[in-house]
Design goal:
The protein is α+β, with helices and mostly antiparallel strands and 155 residues long. The protein contains 3 helices and 7 strands, in the order βαββββββαα. It starts with a strand and ends in an 18-residue tail after the last helix.
Length: 155
């Protein structure tokens, strides 16, 4: 399993950065290898990507979403991953975006890529491309301001 922590500062207000991140279907515009993301409902995303030259698909559940603060998820089918992205107001026009990601490689090729640190480099590159994308626009392509609370844990 890979544990990845990456961050980037973006030159937009926290609301703009957060609002853009909630536009999951735009992820292929700045995430390397992601070919499509479909938001099936408020909590469920279906991902399609190319990993090490091979097609991959998975579903993820948004487990927590707090406007201008954080979005957390976990995969429910397919490629195993869990993560959270947080948004930190640095000043009125700058935001720190931090990503924590846990990825479970699937198969020999993904395990080799994981061992070589490719997942971490891809995540760092994705954040840099997000930075370029949002700073060039200086506005989000949309927004979703709803809140998703973590489900209560069974006792």
């Amino acid at each position: 399993m890979s544990y990845i922590v990456e961050s980037v500062d973006v030159e937009v207000p926290v609301r703009v950065a957060y609002d853009q991140w909630t536009q999951f279907e735009d992820f292929p515009r700045f995430m390397d290898g992601v070919t499509a993301v479909a938001q099936l409902d408020e909590r469920t995303l279906e991902w399609h990507a190319e990993i090490a030259g091979l097609p991959a698909a998975w579903r993820a559940e948004i487990t927590e979403q707090i406007p201008d603060q954080r979005v957390a998820w976990r995969s429910t089918e397919g490629a195993g991953n869990t993560g959270v992205v947080t948004f930190h107001r640095l000043d009125a026009d700058r935001t720190g975006v931090a990503l924590r990601l846990e990825v479970e490689p699937d198969g020999v090729i993904q395990s080799m890529g994981d061992a070589l640190g490719l997942v971490g480099r891809r995540a760092a590159g994705d954040l840099e491309r997000f930075k370029s994308f949002i700073e060039e626009r200086n506005s989000s392509t949309g927004s979703w301001r709803g809140e998703i609370d973590q489900p209560a844990k069974a006792k």
